[in-house]
Amino acid sequence: MARTLDNPLYYLANFERAMSWTGERYGDLLDERERAFLDCFNRLPPAARALLVRMVMRKGPLFRESKLAYDEIGDTRAAAAPLLAAGLVDERPALNLDQLFGLLVRSEIAQAFPGVDAALRKAEQLERLRPQWPQARCFDEWLPAARDRVYALRVGEVCDRLRLMFFGNLHQDWTEFVLADLGILRYEQVDISPASRGFGCREDIEVYLRLHACREQIEAGAIPADIPQQPLSNAWLEGRRQKLLFLAGQQQERAAEFAAARRIYAACRHEGARARHIRVLEKCGDHEQAHALAAAAWMQPENEAERQQLARMLPRLRRRVGLPPEAAPPAAAPEEFTLVLPRPVPFPGVELAARDHLWREDAPVHYVENTLINSLFGLLCWDAVFAAVPGAFFHPFHAAPADLHSADFLPRRAAAFDTCLSQLDSGAYRDTIRRRHREKSGLQSPFVYWEAIGDTLLEQALDCLPPEHLKLWFTRLLQDIRANRAGMPDLIRFDLRERRYEMIEVKGPGDRLQDNQLRWIAFCARHGMPVRVCHVRWLEQE
DNA sequence: ACACCAGAGG
DNA sequence: TTCACACGCTCCG
DNA sequence: GAGCGTGTGTCTCCTCTGGTGTCC
Ligand SMILES: [Mn+2]
Ligand SMILES: [Mn+2]
């Protein structure tokens, strides 16, 4: 209500923009239903189009006519008539009791079902009545006295498919348009060729939808039955299939269905699946197999994270199968110190307590966690991240290139990243970072945390962080963005006089270093970067 | 009477 | 649909 | 204390409102 746009039918204009964008780019891939919908939609009168878009954007698919009241549309029944005639909306849908309860308020339920205890909660009333009212009826049959109507949107799935084609995903929705218009979400504008689109063939769209349905089943706690068993030719979708298998395996593990989990993990190449497979074998008591798989993995770990996990599991598994312990390589222990502090009230968190205690005028301390280094990387490499690589950007609302987490993200932009990172050799990086910080401020980015990086922090970081270290961090990040974008220490302390820095991971009572934090600390140790772990204990106060 | 929250909105 | 912490359990030296 | 698993809070724009239930 606070913000206003000039056009009261802004949502209709946005939807029409999206439809024509999608129609232009997917002419060869649309199926009959989608084509029919677009044709039909374009022939509707404006009020009917607007009402349909309101329904598409709302929860649905069932709506009470009285709840579809819009000044800019006018009379709802008149606006709905063409939608009913075209079959886009059903005017007398059969409703089961659950659907009916979703549309009625308590007072209406009390009137319609006088026998049920009005003091019960709605869900309990539903439980009681459900056995007596198994059959579906139309709204006017349920409540003959009611003057209201119920409409059912019939084109929700078609619109979801068109939304998927437009965005290339299903987590973005049509509100992106208005949020961008209002400046609430701001996106980098990348040149998008008229041929750019998220999907290259019809089958990929169908596969995406199938995988998405499976994922929803998993999230609902169900056991997904129809995950595609064969590898997919599209690497992006194959990655999503693998992720799905991994989630299904975890689901089975949590349900203690170890045989099923074992079958799933055995066929799953997703990162981490092999380690889970070993754990499941161990939990089954199949120590020989667990050890064999772990030993084989140890010869060729898929990444550092798996190497860490294997290093913990292998000594135990060797013992289980009666092998002698192997000489363990000494784990490099990080430098540590302990603070004993009074526990502040109100309690701001252990990191802030430690920050405030360590802070000095000439050695300010910031609570940055992953935000600082990722942001500096995102600023220096802005042009490479948002380079108009074919297929990476295909609509105006990309926070990141579509292939950010694909294996060939870096190879496809090698020259651009070289150009960005080479500025760390010449000293030009400081001005580039400052300029991006100014020019791109507030734009969505997969790396830059605008709210965390103020001018003071930025200048201190540029003063005190040596470019050699920035280069090592950024290169490591580019090697594996998913794995290396997190795990950085809580605090950073800048020695303004000496132009030095130190990173400090804060650990409160009971907290321990996590795997990604250990990997980060080990990396820093290898390259002579200062990191310490600060253990905080609370001063007893009676 | 009040707190909470899901949904709607720009 | 992330990331980090809090916390409880088992096992083992 | 190490190793492991699970639960939780804070994020997803922010504000307003109608409806629910007495709390999560
Ligand atoms: Mn932290
Ligand atoms: Mn910490």
UniProtKB/TrEMBL annotation:
- The catalytic activity of this protein is classed by the Enzyme Commission as 3.1.4.1
User: Keywords, A to Z?
Assistant: Hydrolase, Magnesium, Manganese, Metal-binding, Nuclease
Q: Where is the VRR-NUC domain?
A: 424-538
The cofactors required by this protein are: Mg(2+); Mn(2+)
Q: Known Pfam families for this protein?
A: FAN1_HTH, FANC_SAP, VRR_NUC
Kindly give the SMART domains that the UniProt entry links to this protein. VRR_NUC
Q: Which InterPro entries match?
A: Fan1-like, FAN1-like_WH, FAN1_SAP_bact, tRNA_endonuc-like_dom_sf, VRR_NUC
Keyword Transcription found? no
Q: Which family does it belong to?
A: Belongs to the FAN1 family.
Its name, as the record gives it, is phosphodiesterase I
State the species of origin. Answer: Noviherbaspirillum aridicola
